[in-house]
């Protein structure tokens, strides 16, 4: 049964007086929505019991996974500078449509943010800013794949735009894909509907921020965090493994620890 995103609460996995790291569920804004500030958001929820929570970066509403926030102005300056200088290492997991013919690929499409009336990011080879995402295929199924995406730049919606440009839109992406939920009937051979209406396995953009690595603002030591696939994507992967005729692709230099939980 798919989750109910708006009923999920963030999971706090680290706090030390300078920073906090939380796992944001899908369906929750990172910061208050400017059009509907009454909707719950990660920064407001985490700020209820703390004197100060400073936003460093954001995830899209439908994206699940790791977010780091600062608890002091000094920590905020340090983390913000690391993001600006591209020193923060991030890994995302995405369920995409199709089965790439390649195992690993570097996607380099220049992007222009807020390029149309729907405020979408577009590939613009003349006026776009350089944008790079490294992608690895982890599992292939008949019509879907699980991929790992490592953005080297931080453009808005970069991963989603790069993947759809490469021919593999993120599942259920309403802005860059067809927005259709992932249904068991779409890949299970001889699927037989039950008495109840079929419910989607994944009903939101199937993107998850899985790892985050940066220098701690106080100690300067490397801080690394990981978050296993959120439960809707994990359940979808299990069903794809069972009914989707999949195969595992395992690059020799890939660490699978956060996929095993």
Explain the overall architecture.
With 261 residues, this protein is of the alpha+beta class. It is built from 4 helices and 13 strands. Strands 1, 2, 3, 4, 5, 6, 9, 10, 11, 12 and 13 form an 11-stranded mixed beta sheet that branches. Strands 7-8 form a two-stranded antiparallel sheet. A hairpin with a 6-residue loop joins β11 (207-215) and β12 (222-226).
Quickly give the structural class: alpha+beta
Average pLDDT for all residues: 92
In percent, how helical is the residue content?
A: 10-25%
Strand content: 25-35%
Q: How far is the first residue's CA from the last residue's CA?
A: 19 Å
Low-confidence spans: pLDDT under 50, at least 5 residues? 1-5
Count of alpha/pi helices = 4
The total beta strand count reads: 13
- What is the makeup of the main sheet? 11 strands, mixed
| General shape | globular
Order of helices and strands: EEHEEHEEEEEEHEEHE
Rg over C-alpha atoms, rounded to the nearest angstrom: 19 Å
Strand and helix map with partners:
Layout: E1 11-15, E2 19-24, H1 42-47, E3 54-55, E4 64-70, H2 73-84, E5 89-97, E6 104-108, E7 111-112, E8 122-123, E9 132-140, E10 144-151, H3 158-165, E11 207-215, E12 222-226, H4 231-243, E13 247-248
Parallel strand pairs: 4-11
Antiparallel strand pairs: 1-2, 2-4, 3-4, 5-10, 5-11, 6-9, 7-8, 9-10, 9-13, 11-12
